[in-house]
């Protein structure tokens, strides 16, 4: 065999290589789309769990989710800046929203080291903006408001 002699063309091998490349590209695109769509899913799930606890009027559990501390009653002094009494005023039946019975996350965006979410409460027209810190996983009121549209 000389330098210019080519090996015999193998159609099966060429088809396998071509299909492997196409499959790999499709997998990369699907993975990129899934990552984009599900990027903020853990924070959205946390806010949904918080509102589920508020809607079921389990304020102790809701406050634990808010502070990412299910045993918050063991060391309530840590949360004196936003204590349980104020939390109940903001989220209980005497709050601005009344009894919260429904919620819907309408917009989510990563801002800095947290995720800001606009949440419609009880079908309201203006969403409430909450922020979940990605490191501590605590929920708080967001100083940033996102544009929801007309």
Question: Main traits of this protein?
Answer:
single chain; 150 residues; alpha+beta; four-stranded antiparallel sheet; 4 helices; membrane; transmembrane helix; transmembrane
Describe the structure.
The protein is of the alpha+beta class and 150 residues long. The protein has helices at residues 11-38, 41-55, 59-67, 84-91; strands spanning 103-111, 114-121, 128-133, 139-141. The chain is elongated and about 90 Å long.
Cα shape: elongated
Run of helices and strands: HHHHEEEE
Strand content: 15-25%
> What does the largest sheet look like?
4 strands, antiparallel
What's the end-to-end separation, in Å?
73 Å
Low-confidence stretches: none
Radius of gyration, taken over Cα atoms and rounded to an integer in Å: 25 Å
Number of helices: 4
Helix content: 40-55%
Compute the average pLDDT. 93
| Structural class assignment | alpha+beta
Q: How do the strands of the widest beta sheet line up side by side?
A: 1-2-3-4
Number of strands: 4
Transmembrane segments: 20-39
Keywords: Membrane, Transmembrane, Transmembrane helix
């Amino acid at each position: 065999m000389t330098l210019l002699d080519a090996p015999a063309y193998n159609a099966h091998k060429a088809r396998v290589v071509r299909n492997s490349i196409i499959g790999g590209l499709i997998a990369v695109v699907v993975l990129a789309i899934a990552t984009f769509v599900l990027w903020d899913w853990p924070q959205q799930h946390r806010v949904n769990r918080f509102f589920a606890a508020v809607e079921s009027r389990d304020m102790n559990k809701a406050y634990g989710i808010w502070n990412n501390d299910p045993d918050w009653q063991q060391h309530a002094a840590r949360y004196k800046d936003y204590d349980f009494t104020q939390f109940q005023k903001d989220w209980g039946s005497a709050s601005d929203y009344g009894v919260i019975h429904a919620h819907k996350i309408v917009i989510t965006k990563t801002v800095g080291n947290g995720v800001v979410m606009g949440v419609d409460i009880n079908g309201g027209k203006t969403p409430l903006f909450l922020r979940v810190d990605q490191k501590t996983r605590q929920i708080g009121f967001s100083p940033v408001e996102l544009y929801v549209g007309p």
